[in-house]
From TrEMBL:
GO molecular function (one): hydrolase activity, acting on carbon-nitrogen (but not peptide) bonds
Keyword flag Hydrolase: yes
Organism of provenance: Hypericibacter adhaerens
InterPro entries: Amidohydro_3, Metal-dep_hydrolase_composite, Metal_Hydrolase, YtcJ-like
Domain Amidohydrolase: 50-534
Keyword line: Hydrolase
UniProt name for this protein: Amidohydrolase
Amino acid sequence: MQPDLILTNGRFTTLDRGNPNPEAVAITQGRFSAVGDARDILATKGAGTQILDLGGRRAIPGLVDSHLHVIRGGLNYNMELRWDGVPTLADAMAMLKRQVAVTPPPQWVRVVGGFTEHQFAEKRLPTLDEINAVAPETPVFILHLYDRALINRAGLRAAGYGKDTPNPPGGEIVRDAASEPTGLLLAKPNATILYSTLAKGPKLPPEIQLNSTRHFMRELNRLGVTGAIDAGGGFQNYPEDYQVIGKLHKDGELTIRIAYNLFTQKPGGEVDDFSRWVGMVKPGQGDDTYRVNGGGEMLVFSAADFEDFRQPRPDMPAKMEGELEQVVRILAQNRWPWRLHATYDETIGRALDVFEKVNKEIPLQGLHWFFDHAETITPRNIDRIAALGGGIAIQNRMAFQGEYFIERYGAEAAEGTPPIKRMLAAGVPVGAGTDATRVSSYNPWVSLAWLVTGKTVGGTRLYPPGNRMDREQALRLWTEANAWFSTEQGKKGRIAVGQLADLAVLSGDYMSVPEDEIAHLSSVLTLLGGKVVHGADDFSTLAPALPAAAPDWSPVRLFGGYQDRKTGQQQKTLAAACGCGHECAVHGHDHASAWASRVPVSDERSFWGALGCGCWAV
């Protein structure tokens, strides 16, 4: 058959060891149909074949996140102000101030994860006084990792927190001398207080959740992501909260391939949840775009050891093994793969005791079960996982929390958190991901930079050379390796004949840019099944239409998603050119920021404020 699309003049990293550096790639009916010599491939073109010249750019297989809360994240994306990648607290607070000005009641301004105080030049979070000064009437909720949340006075009123509100189990409402809540919520040690408070805010209506999910997927496509294994999440109920993603799939509007896991929601109700679900759906049910993957990452609440390194390691209760065994038996008997959140080696060891017990009666080999996270796992438990045929999905949470880990356990203990090289040496399947959107950023390049450099986003070196990946190794963990975790080996993850034609053409050459540039890469052309799902720069005219982000006050309209360094550098350059790159003492204008942004002319308040003076026409 004549190909639908031919890509030429690119530097193709195929990850196919038998064909590592081809000259051209052909795509036919959604799959790679030829990978090799340009002259031979161009000779097969037909009247309907589209030919794209990549201009010498690096092309890689589409990235796959092994642990992304993409379904839940999509429902909320358009409501969230992202501080991902913002270099200074001053910039972050300026964004917050601008968003507060356009957010109507009763909506909240939410900064929900993806950042750490260590990324800011100031190396601190905002104070509650600073937040209250910027937002005296609009509720503001700022989630910092899984350790704390900051809420202004308006937010406390909206959430119903007062002098008589008791502390929930595992959390603390910090109070002043008069016992009034200050606005600081602490996870001690688990994040339930943070989750439950966030859930009190208004939700988007279903039609806007559709729009929000499409914008989140497009943002992922912009970064080269074409696939994700969805890890469920707190307050993500099945099947109710999957209707939006199901409709997008039915309408052919998914631009990310999603394999989803089902996450139990109620302590004490885990057996009932999984007993019901194994009768409703089966692993693999669906198609190449949207399919069931298995159970987890929450299997039982008694086995969940949240990774707040500011707090001592939590001991799991004595009932953990009994409750976990009940659920694992249900899953194993029904041949359901599972994933289990486990930060600490102690939790992993106890879970393995259960898995080994079940394995004596119901063999687990071939089931593609795995642990998530495993930051402090020991060689002994790595070998036990290998013996049972399990895997480990690692995430770059240490890139955001490494400084806290060092404060508690020391730099030497941090050198193998997690010990990726030891896992690979043991033959354990290892895949990479982010655990976005509430802990680390969803930006895959932040994870790839962490794998290669061993540094946190704050610049702290965590790992010696022996626990860092070379660039190809890191890329494999983000592509072909993750196919094991969704039981799709050989179907995706390489640019090879017969595989799904998912591909990203990069803004810079990942294989050769300086290490400190890796985190700032993106995609200028992303293909899913050979169809363009994102285009920028020379390929911007190929980008498919996307409705404007809704509602009209959405932070996505003002700021987009991940704030890359190039935008910040552009603002600095413009500021130097016009001489007004600081806030005016009278009106607080910043021409440089306005010139470097997309001015929302349909919104008078933001329009006039961005152009110069926030008090004009307000």
